[in-house]
# Entry
Amino acid sequence: MNRFFLVFLALTISLTTSCSGNKKAGSELPSWYLSPKQNSAENLYGVAEGYTLEEATKSSLAEAASRLMVSISSESTLLREENKTDVNEESRQQIKQNIEKIDFTNFKVSRSEKMGQKIYVEAEIKRSPFISDQKEKVSFLERKIADLDKNLATSNPIQKRASLLKMLDFSNQAILSTRILNGAGENINLKEKLARQANFENQLNSLNDKIEFFFEINSPKEISQIIRNALNKEKIAIAKTRNSGSNQIVIGIKSSSRNNKIYEAYMTKLQIDFENISNAKTIASSSVEVSGSSSIGEKESYAAAVKSFEEKVSQDGILKVIGITN
# Structure
């Protein structure tokens, strides 16, 4: 028996063994998936399905955490069902995204089985380390919120808005971990955190109604339009007249371009400079360089560079691009 055949035989046996749990599509789902193991004093459990082991494992961890949260547990099963048309998809996605922000350590895939195109997974999480991690996370988030809150009074309106957005994100995460901890038997004041969250939201809504941008008259039209569209999406008002109020940010935009032709391709490098002024003082500035190319001509390569700028705004966020936030 030659060496090649021995290797082939070994691989065949290995594949046969690993796929022994691979049932044909349409057969009964794993019993441990249909009747999930209950949480114990030592471990937490979650089950889920996915098209890859990574996807299924990630979802099973999220399901394990969601079992501890009364307000979310009823929704978690929706993440495991394919044909729920009576539930708002945006709400389900938001629930899933929130749960997926949880950090998981000390877990293992305790069971897995493949059926057709899907993999079914049971995840087992060590309860005590997981709960300790959530406590540490809440403490860390509370410190971050307190640090941002200290600087709110001295921030300009745009910086205050950026801080409030961060505070809301940290607060959401703290509330999520608090729900988990309370579901696990810890006693943390959730009502207090929810009230604070409502206060942050009210401050942000009030601030959004006051903040406005005004564009300098000589700002490049195509660049200004991209920024206008992005600010509209952020629900920030754009003023038609300039004033000296502290809530108005005057944005000045200057741009310059350089053109080259390399191997029959027209290349344009576009530099855009931003200056943001409030109360006659420059509060922030930034410079962005993008490029574009075209085989047709310089005009088309310039348009491609402008498109690159639009994509950067979409990816990084308008306030970061113009220098207001980091």
About this structure: The CA atoms of residues 268 and 302 lie 6 Å apart.
